[in-house]
Amino acid sequence: xxxxxxxxxxxxxxxxxxxxxxxxxxxxxxxxxxxxxxxxxxxxxxxxxxxxxxxxxxxxxxxxxxxxxxxxxxxxxxxxxxxxxxxxxxxxxxxxxxxxxxxxxxxxxxxxxxxxxxxxxxxxxxxxxxxxxxxxxxxxxxxxxxxxxxxxxxxxxxxxxxxxxxxxxxxxxxxxxxxxxxxxxxxxxxxxxxxxxxxxxxxxxxxxxxxxxxxxxxxxxxxxxxxxxxxxxxxxxxxxxxxxxxxxxxxxxxxxxxxxxxxxxxxxxxxxxxxxxxxxxxxxxxxxxxxxxxxxxxxxxxxxxxxxxxxxxxxxxxxxxxxxxxxxxxxxxxxxxxxxxxxxxxxxxxxxxxxxxxxxxxxxxxxxxxxx
Amino acid sequence: xxxxxxxxxxxxxxxxxxxxxxxxxxxxxxxxxxxxxxxxxxxxxxxxxxxxxxxxxxxxxxxxxxxxxxxxxxxxxxxxxxxxxxxxxxxxxxxxxxxxxxxxxxxxxxxxxxxxxxxxxxxxxxxxxxxxxxxxxxxxxxxxxxxxxxxxxxxxxxxxxxxxxxxxxxxxxxxxxxxxxxxxxxxxxxxxxxxxxxxxxxxxxxxxxxxxxxxxxxxxxxxxxxxxxxxxxxxxxxxxxxxxxxxxxxxxxxxxxxxxxxxxxxxxxxxxxxxxxxxxxxxxx
Lengths: 372, 285
Known about the structure:
- Chain A: GO terms for molecular function: ATP binding.
- By secondary structure, chain A is α+β, with helices and mostly antiparallel strands.
- Chain A folds into 2 domains: 4-231, Rossmann fold (3-Layer(aba) Sandwich); 232-368, CATH 2.40.50.140.
- Chain A has helices spanning 44-52, 94-105, 109-122, 138-150, 168-185, 196-202, 220-225, 230-235; strands at 4-15, 18-29, 33-37, 59-64, 67-68, 79-82, 156-160, 188-193, 205-210, 213-218, 240-250, 253-258, 263-267, 278-283, 289-291, 302-312, 319-324, 329-333, 348-353, 359-362.
- Chain A starts with a strand and ends in a 10-residue tail after the last strand.
- The relative contact order of chain A is 0.11.
- Chain B is mostly helical.
- Chain B has a domain at 68-240: MetI-like fold (Orthogonal Bundle).
- Chain B is built from 13 helices and 2 strands, in the order αββαααααααααααα.
- Chain B has helices at residues 2-35, 50-57, 59-93, 96-107, 114-125, 130-138, 151-175, 179-187, 192-220, 224-230, 237-247, 251-276, 280-284, and strands at residues 37-41, 44-47.
- A two-stranded antiparallel sheet of chain B has the order 1-2.
- In chain B, β1 and β2 form a beta hairpin.
- The longest helix of chain B is centred in the first third of the chain and has 35 residues, at 59-93.
- Chain B is globular.
- In chain B, 29% of the residues are buried.
- The chains are: A alpha+beta, B mainly alpha.
- The interface between A and B is medium-sized, with 25 and 17 residues.
């Protein structure tokens, strides 16, 4: 078995009557990038602060490299944290910031200078040692905050939504850069975020969290293609959602009639749904194929046609809203291959998707939830 | 437009000029002029440095001057040592209602005049006072104990009077320190001592210096507390100035004393700023 850098067992944290973290268990293998993804208030920050040692868990265990750290105070734990607003020390220059942890360990002066120089080299900012914190750009501060932790060679690095304060372009850039830094330092990263794209791009494993529990743990692909709960289907990526009733269930194939009267076919993906159950169906806009002729869609179980109600142009992420004869609105991704360049309001299009692409769940309150 | 902005400029500047001129510059010029004249007969004056020479020639004046300076520095240091943990607790540890309640408690004594507050200390410390009776009742003393009219009582009074002026700037600067910066200090291996030394104190430095300057000046210029709590044995330089002006009608010497006190406080404030590497703009602005 590969060694686990971080193991969390049945971790629970209660604040008076409120349960912030409810019996969560997971483990993170050495050298991997693990993300906890969830809406604000789901308990992800509480988990992180318990791992860092700022909060004591109500029950459960936290093990780092196999050793329980519950009795270890935060300044002695082999974990370091990159804070949401980075928390660089404004009273020190960059070299002093990075050297702070080494000074605390009692490392010799010239050794500190050497290590600080090395780590600055590694983050690609070799000449900024004497600068002040507020002279750096957002991205540079980000890298310094990571370097300040990495110079201590922690077993696990915790990152608490560190990209939240950056503007969009820089955030996109830093996603790639963080992944590169993680590979360069070869350290286990545990990253918490409410931004699905950050989690999907960077992580080896993602845990989707809601109301203090993990809904699903898996790779980005697993979460995206095979969500195991309605919450995950709604939170990761966009979806068209319908509520309906199961009218036929046979060999994994479900036939569902929506409240508006559309008949759909979907795969049950080994979930227990039988005839008469109320069900919610989630279909991603990008899983739906559009065509000018019905013949192109022969291979799909679900085939419909509708008129273009509106075109939401957003470059590569452009969408069409199509209205079926029964009045149902469906969001569909508009391919940018040139084929549909002339599509406009009022055009009639055929569209379809395979039952495999439709995820059905027992009806739940997550259906009406809107995130972000 | 041009004329309008000029008028606005004049209007904005007038109060400042009036304030500076009437309350600071003119009185000080006049004081200085008084301090450099010497009375040589009835209604006859000569310009000379005789008053300053009297000051430097009389050991009592010099000793009182030095004593006042040292005691004020000591009072400032004590206020800082007591005020810093109080301010840290209020700014960083207490939360919500407790925080505002504690801050209010610091403020409450200042709702009454300094005179009343000082009388409060006299009630506690005098021979027939609360502490004296308490000690006798417990059996630690077999006769009334006089705790007033000495340097310790005076120091207690000075520290108490100045506490708010130290605590408020400290709370303000410490509140601006992000909690996560302190947490980062622990996370990266610091303990309470090193986080305090490397993070909290450097961050609070402008507050420490501005609070110290205010407390030092208040102590140096204090008249009431040394007189009432220190008694006749505890000479304070302001008492000398008072007696020259009011008792002896020697305005010339009193003005010279006043100028020496101004010089002293300027030098000490300048020295503190230089030593701590702060500037007046940074600490006061």
